[in-house]
Amino acid sequence: MEASWEVSVTDSINTIYLLFSAYLVFVMQLGFAMLCAGSVRAKNAMNIMLTNVVDAVVGSISYYLFGFAFAFGTDSNPFIGTQFFALMDIPNSSYDYSYFLFQWAFAIAVAGITSGSIAERTQFSAYLVFSFFLTGFVYPVVAHWVWSSSGWLSPSSSSLVFGSGAIDFAGSGVVHLVGGIAGLWGALIEGPRVGRFDAFGKPVPMRGHNATLVVLGTFLLWFGWFGFNPGSYAKILVPYPDSTDQGNWTGVGRTAVTTTLAGSTAGIVTLFGRRLLVGHWDALDVCNGLLGGFVAITSGCAVVEPWAAIVCGFFAAWVLIGLNILALKLKFDDPLEATQLHGGCGAWGLIFTGLFAKEEFVVQAYDSGESGVTRPYGLFLGGGWGLLGCQVIEVLVIVGWVSLTMGPLFYALHKLRILRISVDEEVAGLDISSHGGYAYTAHQEETPRFYADYMRLQDRS
Questions:
Q1: Has residue 125 got a pLDDT over 60?
Q2: In angstroms, rounded to a whole number, what is the distance separating the alpha carbons of residues 14 and 359?
Q3: CB count in 10 Å sphere of residue 125
Q4: Residues 153, 145 contacting (CB under 8 angstroms)
Q5: Does residue 236 belong to any structural domain of this protein?
Q6: Is the previous residue joined to 408 through a cis bond, with omega within 30 degrees of 0?
Q7: Any idea where the Ammonium transporter AmtB-like domain is (predicted)?
Q8: How far is CA 458 from CA 42, 121, 127, in A?
Q9: What confidence tier does 244 reach under pLDDT thresholds 50, 70, 90?
Q10: 221 and which of 31, 127, 182, 215 could share a cystine (Cβ 3.0–4.6 Å)?
């Protein structure tokens, strides 16, 4: 009786921990909304906030109906799950409702990443289509590969690739690289915003209208990342057998520390790096640098030492800075830098894990610290090429899979003329042309204040 009571208490605490982590990850939706709203021009603020809401609500339905089943269906299919549609047979011995909620919060974050790449020029109906498809099919398949015990690239699989499987603990690849590559194709197919590049191909600055919202959104995302990364342990009351005072609670604390150090390092490197490049201190660049560090450490947060997290953040900052420079040279327009930030830093995070993962921590994260277990670990720490090879494979298959699915989808929407808005609508702003009015009550006199005013201007032209 006493043993049963202890098990019940342990399960209850683990469930509370997982639910609290899910709530923190959901707070990131608010962070995304504020970051996006501040990063676009005022005439599109209502539109971008609405798309963030739509990403959450549409993603909820698609992930409930299909996504969770494709991601975590407990069968032997290494490519895609085929059970638990609409949560049928949940809860069971493997998953319960709290686990679904935690994974749902991850799924809707992916669509939010992609929305930023195509902001300020996309028809609202297109968001409904790609959000449903991305959260209900494209993302869950990748999650199955890496996070399901039957996934072909999973470190928990019975037949490990290179004897290792890919380590993507909280989703630098599964979440961020997927969202970034989807955004890449959306932005490429739509093309840059009107006026983003002049007649000679030189970039014209289009700064976001509210730095306060950007900073607020950044701190909300930082707060949510404490659920995103440490919460990916799923259970906190798991003792390690070779230690009397260490368990998952130790790993959870270390993961929060590595997350903080990587983001902070990337933020300060971006601060001084951009100061050297543009000649002034830029709060918005620092915010994106900070987020780039978080994205990069998300893969290896549980399996690296704190000092390695600093290395991760340092290089993540330069990856982001370099990709932003390259994007301008290629006339690629991503208002939120989502492709560069989530795609570029996500890919770096996977490679970083293959270089710096510590064997002891890998065993703790994936085998609950079981004694006598050996696993491939970071190349730079003497662990060989197995893990790094799996990390490179994950990068390549994610880029390929998302390109093969989201690329044709965006192209089809483009050909059907339901992807990009007209030039007139874009110049006037999506708020007035599609959403009935601006997000703010104060306007310049020469701009239309209400949808009726916008229609009268259209009639005159």
A1: yes
A2: 25
A3: 12
A4: yes
A5: no
A6: no
A7: 18-440
A8: 21, 18, 25
A9: confident
A10: 31
